[in-house]
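Deviation from plan, reported transparently: 1,3-dihydroxyacetonephosphate complex.
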Amino acid sequence: MRALIAGNWKMNGLAADVERIAAPLAASGPPAGCDLLVCPPATILREVGRVLAGSAVALGAQDCHPAPSGAHTGDLSAAMLRDAGATWVILGHSERRADHGEGDALVRAKAAAAAAAGLTPIVCVGETEAQRVAGEHLGIVRGQLAGSLPDDFAGVVAYEPVWAIGTGRNASEADVAEMHAAVREALITRFAGRGAAVRILYGGSVKPANAAALLAVKDVGGALVGGASLNAADFLAIARAAPRA
Ligand code: 13P
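Because the crystal trials were delayed, the predicted structure below was used instead.
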């Protein structure tokens, strides 16, 4: 399985930053055996796409509305993101679940809308620190998967423990192994052979220094990278740490 290294720029990046971050990625291209994806804010999707044009680096967005169009002030449809050049979209990120009260049913509707518009969804799941301390992490993530993935899901899952995001405290290899095995089992139980082929990304304080160890864990099919994806050299170093397909 080829690794997918995806950069989530979150609410960072102006037009003036595009060249600095995206041009080195376009010049390098994905390391052999690895897929590279950048997900900038929607305001600069087109500019980033222009810099990446002709390279094998893919372009994605960070959210979409479940409806194809209509009276939804401030929202963006999957078709609009596709029109701006995106072919991927991150959905159900814990920051959206927390900041905007997004629940599993909405994430599931967004995933269906994304697929209908030709976007490949990356559906995020992950427990809070309190849930992990209470021993609820596996059940929480199993519930998020059951509720957030449509029946015809054909995308990527990202496991991002909330307590590891932006904290510098990545999950241990043992914790990642336990969770990714549980996610794989849930995907196979629900989707059979199709579930065995879904890439399961790890996200949460992935850096060049810890990438090789995290990416070598069984059933880790890549990384969803926040802070380190804003630095092209760090992002490429993480991609180079991925095991060769
Ligand atoms: P950090 O890599 O900054 O911890 O962010 C992870 C993340 O939330 C990616 O979606």
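The longest helix spans residues 173-191. We consider this an acceptable substitute for the interim report.
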